[in-house]
């Protein structure tokens, strides 16, 4: 792990050791919420019938890919990227025909290109970062991902409207979200706060 990223791999690998290759092993509380979250993420490309290249950043053990296949999504290539060697190794064994990379996109010279990028769970826990540093990490990470994304990017984070907050988690308030959009000149976006009162998804569109 390097200075540019929080130690998220240790957090999620610890959960994996407890619960195995399950929704809990990926750090989520309930299976129905995980499926609902996947459904909401997939809305960014579900109506795109062209051949799509999808990058799943923080892919874990490829549960999102399993969801897409179960739902019968066609015409897509899937690439999984994660900083955990364990998760990438498991994903490769489960789905050898997919492309997988174990790396930190903020600290690599490898070039990627895709139509859609999914960032699920990367901005919900702060790891060893302060809130201020986590916000800077979010800006840098999404900016880097947008550089290789042609059509749209979706990420989730915890909601400031939560009635209870964990000091170890990261909550992106709407003022900072607006500041982020202005700082990065993003003006084509949609905020989805409909599926869970404790979190929300932001869709950023590169094309209408």
Q: Any idea how many domains?
A: 1
Number of strands: 7
Q: Which topology does CATH recognise? A: Rossmann fold
Please report which band the strand proportion falls in: under 5%, 5-15%, 15-25%, 25-35%, 35-45% or over 45%.
Answer: 15-25%
Largest sheet: 7 strands, mixed
Count helical runs.
6
- CATH class type: Alpha Beta
Describe what you observe in this structure.
The protein is α/β, with parallel strands linked by helices. Helix content is 33%, strand content 23%. It is built from six helices and seven strands; from the N terminus they run ααβαβαββαβαββ. The chain has helices at residues 8-19, 31-42, 63-70, 85-94, 131-147, 174-183; strands at 52-57, 76-82, 99-102, 114-123, 149-158, 189-192, 199-205. Strand 4 (114-123), helix 5 (131-147) and strand 5 form a beta-alpha-beta unit. The mean pLDDT is 90.
Key features?
208 residues, Rossmann fold, 7 strands, 7-stranded mixed β-sheet, alpha/beta, 33% helix
Brief write-up:
This protein is an alpha/beta fold and 208 residues long. Helices cover 33% and strands 23% of the residues.
